[in-house]
């Protein structure tokens, strides 16, 4: 009698996924992204800020950020479109508290508070100063809370219409300008040939050609804009900043009085 042969289940070899077609790399499908847990824009921007603080803006890149987060670069691109988006997202995280819990009081006090908080925050994250200086790029992450405080304070100071626009520009330029200029960096370190040449030029001012500069050379040297060879993190310009705030507020008060007198006449 013929015995039936046992039936065997054929062994199949898993097929490798088809190779990706060459061409432009676009945003990956969400299903294709690796598991990233709580990865989101907030976590990404926080990590970007920490990396910029540690390495500087020039060294910051998406690949390094992906390594820091333990994900593939494609996972980051799912949430942000470019390196610039990451930089300005990090900037928005850094400046988020500037306009929070604004103290009650006069419009002068509120403007002073904004100016001082902004500078203090930027000194905590000095590598972001070049991003602040790029005003148009920075506008992609408009801080509406900060702008609301500025506009409301200036309304209280009787600014309106074009005068309000002008006053807003004055305050924002004062807020960003001093801090970014103070935190600007030299082409090389302070002990470089550049720094030595700058110092020699300042200390070698000719009294015959520049008598006023020569008279005040010792006070101005390395403490006045255009005459420094050390950056503001190592050599802060605290008294100059307070003078800047006083002049700004005094100027706004003077313009406010003129506007009020014109309306009442």
TrEMBL record:
PROSITE patterns in UniProt: HTH_TETR_2 (PS50977)
Domain HTH tetR-type: 38-98
Protein name: HTH tetR-type domain-containing protein
Alphabetical UniProt keywords: DNA-binding, Transcription, Transcription regulation
InterPro entries assigned to the protein according to its UniProt record, in alphabetical order: Homeodomain-like_sf (IPR009057), HTH-type_TetR-like_transc_reg (IPR050109), HTH_TetR (IPR001647), Repressor_TetR_C (IPR004111), Tet_transcr_reg_TetR-rel_C_sf (IPR036271)
Region of interest called Disordered, as start-end residue ranges on this chain: 1-33
DNA-binding region: 61-80
